[in-house]
Each structure stands twice: as structure tokens, then as C-alpha cells.
Amino acid sequence: MDPKDRIIFALDVPSLSEAEKYAGMLKDHVGVFKVGLELFVACGPAVIEAVKKSGQGIFLDMKFHDIPETVRGAMRSASALGAEFITVHCDEGGALLKAAVEGNTGSAKVLGVTVLTSLSDESLKEIGIDTNKYRTPLDLVLHRARLAKLAGCAGVVCSGHEVDSVKNEFGPDFIVVTPGIRSSGDAVGDQKRVVTPYEAIYNGADYIVVGRPIRKAHDPRKAAELIAREIGKALKDRRGD
Ligand code: C5P
Fold first, then answer.
1. Whose CA is nearest to atom 12 of ligand 1?
2. Among positive and negative, which fits the CA dihedral 150, 156, 162, 167?
3. Any idea what the CATH number is for the domain that residue 42 is in?
4. CB 59 within 8 A of CB 32
5. Number of domains observed in the structure of the chain
């Protein structure tokens, strides 16, 4: 896989025309386009068709979160759209994750979202987590990744701080996608558990999700190129050559 193919660019824009603009601009610089809630709610399945014309894969980031039967149906509808990846939240447990996997009648890889990268150690208490049992986001990520693995998910989404542990525990074939990517000069925004592209890939992530650091760059293509270069270096260092 070429280093740039490991970049999932987040199309966090509100219209079809903007999505098409970025897909056209970045199709040779990233491997996958992520269609998330903002864009899908605004445009519906038409945006998937439009972005697919770039020739790159689609990461349909629906982060499904409902009762199992509803998620099974939503996944059935979503998987018919021809995305390469579709996401579901892990925090409602195994029954929901199993329903998501069963509802996937297409060829998408179902990924479980473990703990959002916008959450910190302090957020765990606020969202009702027993912090005696799960002291850090890592403890919770590993617990949720286990549920995802048992339910038959192809992998998980987690921060670059947890990738290493997830890969060690669940093996190299369990896909890990890492958002919350920032280089040293980037604004962090709402993200909390951030790492650089180099760190995420060096720690074992298969893909990184990058939105604002490319979208808000003066030259988005150049920003993507620099990230691909960092990915290449991290892969090389991991192999030890
Ligand atoms: O790079 P930037 O922070 O702009 O990218 C954020 C993107 O990553 C958003 O589309 C968000 O939905 C996604 N994401 C995340 N944390 C997760 C899963 C997805 O930030 N755990």
C-alpha cells in the first residue's frame, strides 16, 4: 500500500459542491474519503456516488448508535451504498455490534468506534464511566475493542495513544483507524488525545483520519503530501530499514 493510501480525508463540509471540490483536489493525494454526519445529513446517498467518481474508497462514518434492530436495518441500508468502511459506536455493547455486523450485507468493513478522540481522562467520569474499573481511556478502549472483535467487527477506531496496545492484544489483522491527528504547529481544536501522523503509523495504525490539518492548510495538497511523507518514514522505521 502506498503511504498516501493510508490517509482518510474527512470531508467535513456542508454541501455536495464542496465535497466534490475536495475530492477532485485530493484524489491523487489521499486513499479514502470520509463522509460523516454533516455531509451525509445534508446530501444523503447522492454524495457517496459523487465522491466515488474520484476513484477512491469511501469511509461512511455514521457512528450508528441505537437499539440493535434499528442499527441492523441502518447498516443494511448503508452497506448497499458501496462504502469500504462503516462505523458503529461500541458503547452499547455486544448485541448492538453483532446486529451491525449482521446487517452488513455489502462488502464494507464494520469498524467499532471505541472512545472518541475528543474525550480525555477527565471526561470519563462525566459520561458515567466507573473510573475505578476503567481508570484511563486506554482501559475503556481495550474493553470496547474486545467487544468489537467478539462481535465480528473488522477493526476499531481509537486514538494513537492506544493503537499499540490494541494491536498487541488483538493481532495485526484487526484494523485500527486513528483520528485526532495533529502535527506540532497545528491547532488542536476540540481534539484531546492527539498524535502526529508519524506517531500514529509508527505505533501501528493502518489508517489515519485527517480533516482540519489538510482542509485548513494554505495548500491542502501540499499538506497531504507532507503527511504521506511522514507515514512513509514511520513505516520504514517500524520495519527497521
Ligand atoms: O482532523 P480533524 O480533527 O478535523 O478530524 C476529525 C474527524 O475525525 C471528524 O470527521 C470526526 O468525526 C472524526 N473522528 C474523530 N474521533 C473519532 C472518530 C472519528 O475525531 N473517534
1. 36
2. positive
3. 3.20.20.70
4. yes
5. 1
**CA 93 to ligand 1 center in whole angstroms:** 22
Percentage of the chain lying above the pLDDT 70 cut: 100
Among 11, 86, 117, say which to mutate for ligand 1: greatest number of ligand atoms within 8 Å of CB.
Answer: 117
228 near 3, Cβ under 8 Å? Answer: yes
Which residue out of 27, 52, 63, 233 is catalytically annotated? 63
Residue whose C-alpha is closest to residue 3's, from 218, 208, 216: 208
Atom of ligand 1 nearest to the CA of 215: 4
Q: Give the model confidence (pLDDT) of 52-109 as tens digits.
A: 999 999 999 999 999 999 999 999 999 999 999 999 999 999 999 999 999 999 999 9
To the query of whether residue 125 is one of the catalytic residues in this protein, the response is: no
Task: Please check whether residue 186 is in contact with residue 213, taking contact to mean a CB–CB distance below 8 angstroms.
Answer: yes
Place of cell 462481535: 151
Q: What pLDDT score was predicted for residue 52? A: 96
pLDDT at 186: 80
Strands in the chain per DSSP E? 7-10, 32-35, 57-64, 85-89, 109-113, 155-157, 175-178, 207-210
Q: What is the CB-side half-sphere exposure of residue 103 using CA atoms within 13 A?
A: 24
Distance (Å, whole) CA 43 – CA 130: 39
How far away, in angstroms, is 193 Cα from ligand 1 center?
11
Q: Which domain holds residue 21?
A: 3-239
From residue 171, give the alpha-carbon distance in Å to each of 56, 148, 168, 177, 204.
27, 13, 6, 14, 11
